[in-house]
Amino acid sequence: MPAGLWLGEKIEVIIPVVEHQGNFGMLVATERALYLISKAYSDQPWHIIPFIRLADVVLANGRYGEIDLIYKQYGCDEFLRIDNGEHLSRLYEYLKAALAK
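Request: output the structure for the sequence above.
Response:
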């Protein structure tokens, strides 16, 4: 488990296969962040996206299976591609609820 995972942080959603900006791996969503676990990330086997940095998440219009991550920092966004429709819906609904808190 990533060293950045906070002690006692509850795992909410696990997606076994996800594409993030062209890198493939596993996604773990907790109550505070997304953890993307992949050997593609150079110095660490994971990439952490804290919810505090996200302004919104949007289902990508016209691109099936994609969620756009919209950051609070102007002009910064990324995508997640999840081929499994059930996993996509579950993660999207969880992220919308988590960001609304």
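The chain has one domain: 11-100.
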